[in-house]
Sequence to fold (500 residues):
Amino acid sequence: MEKRIVLVEDEEIIADLLERKLSEEGYKVFVAKNGEEGLAKIKEIKPDLILLDIVMPKMGGFEVMEELKRDEKLKEIPIIVISNSGQPVELNKAKELGAKDWLIKTEFDPKEVLEKVKKQIGN
Amino acid sequence: MNEESREITSEEERLALLNILEDVEEERRKAKEERDKTLAIIKNLTDGLLFFDKEERLSLINPQAERLLNVKEKEVVGKTMEELATFEPLKPFIKFLQENRKSLYKKEFQIGEDKFLEVSSVIVVSRGEKIGTLIILHDISREKIIERMKTEFVSISAHQLRTPLSAIKWILKMILDGDLGPLLKTQKEYLEKAYTSNERMINLINDLLNVSRIEEGRFLYRLEPADLRKIIEDILNTYKKEIQKKKLEVSFRKPRKFPSILLDKEKIGIAVQNLIENAIRYTPEKGKIILSLKKKNKEIEFFVKDTGIGIPKEQQARIFSKFFRAKNAVKMEPNGSGLGLFVTKKIIEAHGGKIWFESEEGKGTTFYFTLPLKLLK
Fold:
């Protein structure tokens, strides 16, 4: 069965590009535009992986992570954080909250994101 | 003869004595006038002043100092430094003075939420003897607030710029990777140029962000034991292409055994990278670059020596200033933020190290830095 990913990203272009890239590789991608929507999608779909932006309207990535931590079933889903700032404070907080991996938008490109995804959940 | 002269003397003495008395009175009046004038000046100075006598007793505080420190003259005057150290409203300030006993020159002290002082101390000497210490308080709150706003502005705008730049980067990358169909050779060439320009912009923004982080005082983040040799080697490796392209002769002299040092890997990496990049950038083709790392007594020393364009003598004093670029550097390489060496210096100093250089225009430059070994635990 194809692996399912929830992508929570408010930046439309980034979300669009990632969705495309991941879909081409055979992943089923569900896009959410903010944390609130993301959390709902995650609860509904129970994906194999979450790609999560940090700074977003309505509910930020950290809040989503905190919510997920409280849920016995959902807290096991691996999360890759997509950071805009790349600031150590932010990345460390993400790690503390249990992110499996992270990437900084200006330093990575879709291909590298794909590699990170593969590393977490395989093809 | 004797008697006569004695008589004249005594008469003269009497007159002289009167004169002296008059002079003394005059002097006293003058002295008082002078004293009042000096006091008036001190009281009306825009800077706060405190004077501790040689027994470290506070003998004078002007109204500005009262206002800045939020104390009343009568509460504090006549008290010793020791006594004031237990006087609640002054506790942090006296502690700051005691910590900086050795030398205090334009040092910042935050006294309230938005209240900042620049404090200096001067030892007052009269006729070759120390009579006390003068503490000068300069209110820099306004400057600090403006500075903070400026830093925040840079930080926010740089963050805002990163988002669209990432989007551009990702789009270009996907097109270049052929994800959206095959490209013609010329299309690919131009897109690659666009990609490179975009990367340059990202780097510039990163530099700006680093500067604002430094200025916000949250730059040094995590110290961990690291092998500086490896950090330098890894960075050098990323410049292989440029080195080959410019036919530069680059060597790295390093000891076989080298201790692990506690440092912020990422930040030291930025510092080393800036120095190596400058050497490569500003050394003409077929030039020579030597990197050297060694352990010296209680510190380690690293240098990058090049046979590059050098720094003009009259511009050397400004080389570590923010946004400054030497004239010959701009001529050789128009692109550059002038932030690299500023950031590098801050990084080295935050680690307790020193940075300096030797340079001669047209011959070359050597940048040195040291890091203390006492960081090793």
Q: What stands out?
A: Residues 224-375 of chain B form a domain with the Heat Shock Protein 90 fold (CATH 3.30.565.10). Chain B is about 50% helix and 20% strand. Chain B touches chain A through 21 residues (CB under 8 Å).
